[in-house]
Each structure stands twice: as structure tokens, then as C-alpha cells.
Design goal:
Layout lengths: L7 E8 L9 E10 L2 E9 L8 H7 L3 H4 L5 H12 L3 E4 L2 H14 L9 E3 H8 L8 H7 L10 H23 L4 H7 L12 H10 L8 E6 L5 E7 L2 H7 L9 H9 L2 E6 L3 H15 L15 E4 L8 E4 L8 E3 L5 H14 L7 H6 L4 H4 L13 H15 L4 H16 L3 H21 L5 E2 L4 E5 L7 E7 L2 E8 L5 H11 L13 H13 L4 E5 L6 H18 L6
Parallel strand pairs: 1-4, 4-5
Antiparallel strand pairs: 1-2, 2-3, 6-7, 6-8, 9-10, 9-11, 11-12, 13-14, 13-16, 14-15
Helix pairs in contact: 3-4, 5-7, 12-20, 17-18, 19-21
Length: 562
């Protein structure tokens, strides 16, 4: 930090106008800073000996009645002079306040004050050149300092003290200023003589930024010990990374703090923006960067399981999907969310909830008595009929939710009319949950481990398209296609997606990757063409289908992808 080896007296005056020769001081306040800490304050209303205009009263809140009977400048100004002593005089627009103080001193036959001065306006102009206005109000907003009570002298002094501390920090961190005299001389330097950037920023701008490619990828901001401070992704790395080092003073405080700590930048190029998004998610969890707020916690994500190997499958929620022939849908955000969806399924679909031991007893349960189970334990429903109900459940999870939402709305109205408000609130929450999931993702949850597909992404504003392959519900690969006639590249990509793999998603590491992927796919659903494949799909015909589809897209856009 800067060594403040002399006391500073931060001062503000309120006056009857702007001209020190014809107008008078009506309030003066000051705070003495010793070693940068506030020690004592001075504040006094002053009888100006003239009327305070309505305009000034409206601005400051100071009325003629408030100053009536107060000490005059002849009494207050000498007392202020004793308070100031030989300290450095600090003010926001120092020439204004010094001018009024000296004018009052001249009226009572005193010599003008000639203390060293530090003007926070002049300092801000040199330290924050990109900030449009250097008014006290705008600096308070910029530094997020509460500015209520402004235009009273003591409150303006308090705000000026806060602004001064922030400017001192910038001068030290970004310009290497360590002494008070350096700070005082900085306010008088020409703008050309002030390097607006610290040494590390100059180094990054000169030696690092020119090397950053303008391609999709992930960037890592490092400190002097090579610790990762921040991980981000970009569609165009060069443009995104440069943005941190342009108009630094206009960034939010947290970004300015990050920029002040950066000493180097690393990056990893990716074939597509989607891969950058997924890599960013993984690296945030790997490095746990202090400046990343989102995606830092690894939370077990639950799934809905339909035990398809059972003649009469049950629907339950599970944390860890297994390769057991069951259908798994998810991941969900929380266990409570997954349990709520299971509750809905068991409420509106005729499925058994008993375990194998209870099922073997063949004893009818209460759910069957109230019409919520088809009682397969008593043989009242065939396997085919029960399977049809499971198919309805799968369609519901896949996004066919209108029937369930109608039933929820009807039951909610009945509960409210019968004054069963707790039931009505619960039904309302279930309705909101399903509506939100479908609105965000186009379905309640995706099926994992059986979701194999090639997707063609055709963004409207780019001269290329992207091929994306998904295996077992997880992202496998992507590639950008700029030449639709590059048949071999397209075929190689499709063939790679068909390579046999028994690797299933790891629920601990892949759940969030699946969520990120599904969110991206839904967000770009209008520009995605999906082609699913399975174990019995003819690879050659499927590859020809993809090539043909891409060729048709090129023709329909008049060679847009050429």
C-alpha cells in the first residue's frame, strides 16, 4: 500500500453559489486521516450573512432557519485553520473548496492557506480515464459506495474518504505508487505521462494477447504462482480475452480485482463452442478457481429408474445408474426434484410400488383400492397392458405432459375450493416443477445410456455447421464443417460415433456434463437436426443419410456453408 506519512484532512464545503467572491460558505466539514485511518472530524453550519436561495436549499437541505444564530465565517474559518494545521488538504474539486475557504479568510484579514493539496477529481481523471464522469456521485456509484445524504458537508466528506481509499488502491496496484508525494504529483501529470496500466497488464497486452487465437475454446487466468484464478469459455477466444483488458475501470469491482491479480493466461482450443462449454464445466470442478462462482460444487445428481427387466417395472429414484437393463432418466437437480416427479408418476399412472417380497404375497394394497395401481400382484392386468402404461410414463418423461398438467390443475382447484390449502400448495408446486422442466429442456428428463445420435447444428449467423455425436446420453465429439463437399471427413466422423463402446456415464463426474449438454441442446433446438441410431442401424446407410442431409442444407441456403 501507499505510505501516508503525513496527516490528510478531507474537506467539503456547502455554499450559497459557485462564485467564491460573491457567495459564502454555509457549511464546512472535515475529517483528519492519520496513517489512512479516520481520527477526528470537524463539522459546522455557518451563518453566511445573506439569504440562502430556494435552489441551494433544495440541493443541500440547508435552510435559512438552520443557519440562523450559527457562528459566522469569522469564527468558523480560524477554527478550521487550526484543525487543518499543516496537514495535506484533500477535497473533491479542490480548487472550489480551497477558493471559498481562502475567500473567507481574505474577508477577515487572514492569509490564504498554502497546504499541499490532493484533488480526488484530478486523481480520478488520471486513474480512471475510461469513466465518463468523475463527479462524486458517479464515483460513488462506480465504487458501489452508498451515497444517501449527499450535499451535506460531512456526508460528502465521508464519501470522499471512501473514494480516496479506492483511488489509492488503484494507484498502488496498477501504477506502483508507494509514497504520498508520488500520489500528489500524479494528479498534476499530463495524461500522456501517466501509464494507464500496471506492468503486468502492459506485459499481457504486449506479449500474451497477440497470441490468443480467434477460435472456440477455454481460457484460464493465472496468478504469479500459476494458480488458476478463473476459467471461462468463448466462441472467439481472442475477442473474449481482450475484453478483460479494455476499459478496465468500467468493469464491475470483481472483474477489476481479477484483472489486478492476473499475471498470465493459458487457453485450450476446441473444435466447437459446445466442446468449450463442456470443457469449461470440467475445468471449473478440477481447479476450483476463486473467481468462478457457478458450477463449483460437485453434487450427486439423482435419476429416475424404471426396472425394465422386471415383468411389472417399478418407477423409483436412484443416485447411481447401473448397467442393469433398466431405463434411467435424468439427471435431476436434486433428490427432492426427482422424488417429486416419481410422486407425480405414482399419482397419475397405474404402476406398482411394492417390492418383490410384497408382490409375491399377492395381497392387494391400498393404492389399488383407491385406483392408483392396476394390482398386477393379483393378476388383474397383463404384462402387455402394464407395459403400455410404462410406455405412457416414458412419453410423459419425454415431454408429453399436457394430460398430467390438466389433472394437476383440476385437483388444485378442488383442493382450494374445499379449503385444503396445504394440498393446493403442494399441487401448485408440482405443476410449476413440470412446467419449468419442460419449458427449459423440452422434456421432464432425457433418457441416458440409450441416447445415441448424430446432430447437425446449423447456426443462422455462421458460415459453417457443426456435427455432434452423442453416445449413451453423453457428449462424444463434435467438429465444424465448412466444406459440405468434404465427404470423407463427414463419413469419418459418423464412423467414429459407431465405434462400439460399453463405457457408461459416471454419475459422479458426468451428471453435470449431461445437464450442460441437455441445456445447450434445448437452447439451440431450433437449429438442430437430430438423427438417432441403434445397435441394428446400418452404418453405411446412416452415413449416407447424414451426407445427404448436409448437402440439402447447403442447397436450401444457396451455398451458405460453402
Amino acid at each position: 500500500m501507499i505510505s501516508l506519512d503525513r496527516p490528510l484532512v478531507v474537506t467539503d464545503t456547502e455554499t450559497t453559489g459557485l462564485n467564491s467572491r460573491s457567495n459564502r460558505i454555509i457549511e464546512i466539514a472535515a475529517t483528519r486521516l492519520v496513517d489512512g485511518e479516520e481520527s477526528i472530524s470537524f463539522s459546522q453550519l455557518v451563518d453566511p450573512g445573506e439569504q440562502i436561495s430556494y435552489r441551494i436549499t433544495r440541493l443541500t437541505g440547508i435552510t435559512n432557519a438552520m443557519v440562523y444564530g450559527c457562528p459566522t465565517a469569522a469564527e468558523v474559518i480560524p477554527a478550521y485553520g487550526e484543525f487543518l494545521a499543516d496537514s495535506v488538504l484533500v477535497a473533491h474539486n479542490l480548487s472550489f473548496d480551497r477558493g471559498f475557504i481562502n475567500a473567507e479568510r481574505d474577508r477577515i484579514g487572514m492569509q490564504p492557506i498554502d497546504n499541499q493539496g490532493l484533488c480526488t477529481v484530478r486523481l480520478a481523471r488520471r486513474l480512471l480515464p475510461g469513466l465518463r464522469s468523475k463527479s462524486l456521485a458517479n464515483l460513488a456509484r462506480f465504487f458501489r459506495i452508498p451515497d444517501h445524504g449527499r450535499h451535506r458537508a460531512l456526508r460528502d466528506v465521508e464519501i470522499t474518504v471512501e473514494v480516496l481509499h479506492r483511488l489509492i488502491k488503484i494507484a498502488n496496484e496498477q501504477h506502483g505508487v508507494t509514497e504520498l508525494d508520488e500520489l500528489i504529483s500524479m494528479q498534476s501529470r499530463t495524461y500522456a505521462r501517466i501509464n494507464p496500466f500496471a506492468k503486468h497488464i502492459v506485459h499481457i497486452r504486449a506479449d500474451v494477447l497477440p497470441s490468443v487465437p480467434d477460435t472456440p475454446g477455454v481460457y484460464r487466468m493465472l496468478d504469479g504462482r500459476k494458480k488458476v484464478l478463473y476459467v471461462g469459455k468463448a466462441k472467439a477466444l481472442a475477442k473474449r480475452v481482450r475484453s478483460y483488458f479494455n476499459a478496465i475501470e468500467a468493469h464491475p469491482p470483481r472483474i477489476r480485482q481479477l484483472v489486478a491479480s492476473i499475471r498470465d493466461i493459458e487457453w485450450t482450443e476446441t473444435p466447437t463452442e459446445l466442446e468449450a462449454l463442456l470443457l469449461e464445466s470440467r475445468e471449473i470442478r478440477t481447479y476450483d478457481p476463486p473467481f468462478n462462482r457457478a458450477q463449483k460444487r460437485t453434487t450427486p445428481r439423482p435419476y429416475i429408474r424404471i426396472d425394465n427387466q422386471n415383468p411389472y417395472p417399478r418407477v423409483t429414484s436412484h443416485i447411481f445408474p447401473r448397467q442393469d437393463g433398466s431405463l434411467y432418466f435424468g439427471p435431476f437437480r436434486s433428490r427432492g426434484q426427482a422424488r417429486s416427479v416419481v410422486e407425480l408418476i405414482q399419482r397419475y399412472f397405474l404402476v406398482a410400488t411394492c417390492d418383490d417380497r410384497e408382490f409375491r404375497h399377492g395381497k392387494r394394497c391400498m393404492r389399488a383400492d383407491i385406483g392408483r395401481c392396476s394390482a398386477p400382484c393379483e393378476g388383474q392386468v397383463s404384462e402387455e397392458e402394464y407395459r403400455a402404461e410404462i410406455e405412457r410414463i416414458c412419453r410423459f418423461i419425454g415431454g408429453d405432459v399436457s394430460d398430467v398438467l390438466q389433472k394437476l390443475k383440476k385437483e388444485m382447484s378442488i383442493a382450494a375450493e374445499s379449503l385444503a390449502f396445504e394440498d393446493a400448495v403442494r399441487l401448485r408446486d408440482l405443476y410449476a416443477l413440470i412446467d419449468d422442466l419442460v419449458s427449459r429442456h423440452g422434456r421432464v428428463a432425457p433418457e441416458i445410456m440409450r441416447d445415441d445420435a448424430i446432430l447437425i447444428y446449423t447456426p443462422h449467423d455462421e458460415d459453417s455447421l457443426t456435427l455432434i455425436s452423442i453416445r449413451h446420453g453423453c457428449f462424444l465429439a463434435s467438429t465444424g464443417i465448412t466444406d459440405v463437399n468434404d465427404r470423407s471427413r463427414i463419413l469419418n466422423f459418423v464412423n467414429a460415433a459407431f465405434q462400439e463402446t460399453d463405457i457408461l456415464p459416471d454419475p459422479r463426474s458426468d451428471a453435470d456434463q449431461i445437464r450442460v449438454l441437455m441445456h445447450w441442446l434445448y437452447a439451440h433446438r431450433d437449429t438442430l437436426i437430430r438423427h438417432e441410431f441403434g445397435a441394428d442401424t446400418d452404418k453405411e446407410k446412416f452415413a449416407d443419410l447424414i451426407v445427404s442431409q448436409i448437402s440439402q442444407l447447403s442447397l436450401s441456403t444457396s451455398g451458405h456453408f460453402n
